[in-house]
């Protein structure tokens, strides 16, 4: 960790800022939409994270305080910056598909012409994770990395509604997530856990922080990537495990289907209620869920 500066300061939540020594300011950490009802609402609120790791200042480490909240949005009067984010799941101190997360991040940096960080991001993630099961959020803004961790939420079947917010293409995982924040806020306002967005052409696209799958007769389907969705690593994992058909369908085509969502934090989570109607369960979903996480 030599050459990096990390801090953990007092506050109502927690995060670790990692960057070149004495560079970067505190920022608010956006929620990934995976903590269930009553949690932070995307860009609307500051997510709370528990800081339980020692932090490094060059070659030495010290605990500065028990908690921290950093604001990832630019300060008033500062130029607007776009950050790239990766949200990961650590299991027993190891992040499955860490290489895939960092490869996607690097590809987005190149596509957007953004600067790369000066250090080894894989080492920084491993340092922040420690041991046990955690959710890890890595953000890069102008070449400066931030890492925040929190506990893993218990999973249960979720209630999902269709968002009134029209989906706009989101090929890179950036902090420009206003459409998802609004959709999530609206969903929770009506008592749902989350929402799925629909494209301007009327095709089901993606959730606020996840990809959608459904069983259609003998086939497993998911919205086509060319609709403009973010192809998540959870989606990729499911497509490695079984044959999946990419489709362009209206919301009406999902009626009566067995549905589930995926991302690299939550794995596979069944949708229990969709647009107010109970969703039938399919035993094949449980089989995929059991095999989702690598040994």
What does this structure look like?
This protein is an alpha+beta fold and 295 residues long. 19% of the residues lie in helices and 29% in strands. The chain folds into 2 domains: 5-150, D-amino Acid Aminotransferase, Chain A, domain 1 (2-Layer Sandwich), CATH 3.30.470; 158-292, D-amino Acid Aminotransferase, Chain A, domain 2 (Alpha-Beta Barrel), CATH 3.20.10.10. The protein has helices spanning 98-112, 121-129, 178-189, 233-241, 283-292; strands at residues 5-7, 16-19, 55-57, 60-62, 84-90, 134-141, 144-150, 158-167, 194-199, 204-207, 211-216, 219-223, 244-247, 258-263, 267-274, 277-278. Strands 8, 9, 10, 11, 12, 13, 14, 15 and 16 form a 9-stranded mixed β-sheet that branches. The model is unreliable at 1-80 (pLDDT under 50).
In terms of topology, how is this protein built?
Elements: E1 5-7, E2 16-19, E3 55-57, E4 60-62, E5 84-90, H1 98-112, H2 121-129, E6 134-141, E7 144-150, E8 158-167, H3 178-189, E9 194-199, E10 204-207, E11 211-216, E12 219-223, H4 233-241, E13 244-247, E14 258-263, E15 267-274, E16 277-278, H5 283-292
Parallel strand pairs: 8-9, 8-15, 12-13
Antiparallel strand pairs: 1-2, 2-7, 3-4, 5-6, 6-7, 9-10, 11-12, 11-14, 14-15, 15-16
């Amino acid at each position: 960790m030599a050459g990096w500066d990390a801090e953990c300061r007092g506050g109502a939540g927690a995060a670790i800022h990692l960057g070149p020594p004495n560079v970067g300011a505190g920022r608010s950490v956006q929620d990934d939409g995976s903590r269930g009802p009553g949690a932070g609402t995307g860009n609307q609120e500051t997510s709370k994270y528990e800081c339980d790791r020692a932090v490094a200042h060059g070659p030495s480490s010290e605990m500065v305080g028990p908690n921290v909240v950093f604001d990832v949005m630019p300060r008033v009067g500062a130029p607007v910056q776009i950050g790239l984010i990766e949200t990961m799941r650590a299991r027993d101190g190891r992040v499955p598909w860490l290489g895939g997360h960092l490869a996607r991040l690097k590809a987005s940096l190149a596509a957007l012409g953004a600067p790369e960080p000066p250090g080894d991001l894989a080492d920084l993630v491993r340092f922040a994770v420690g041991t046990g099961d955690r959710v890890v959020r890595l953000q890069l803004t102008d070449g400066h990395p931030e890492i925040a961790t929190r506990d893993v939420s218990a999973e249960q079947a979720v209630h999902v509604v269709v968002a009134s917010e029209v989906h706009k293409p989101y090929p890179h995982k950036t902090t420009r997530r206003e459409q998802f924040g609004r959709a999530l806020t609206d969903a929770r306002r009506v008592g749902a856990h989350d929402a799925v967005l629909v494209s301007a052409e009327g095709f089901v696209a993606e959730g606020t922080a996840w990809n959608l799958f459904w069983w259609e007769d003998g086939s497993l389907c998911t919205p086509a990537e060319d609709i403009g969705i973010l192809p998540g690593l959870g989606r990729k994992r499911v497509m490695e495990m079984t044959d999946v058909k990419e489709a362009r369908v209206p919301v009406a085509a999902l009626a009566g289907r067995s549905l589930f969502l995926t991302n690299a934090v939550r794995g596979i989570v069944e949708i229990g209620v969709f647009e107010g109607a109970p969703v039938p369960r399919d035993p094949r979903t449980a089989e995929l869920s059991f095999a989702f996480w690598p040994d």
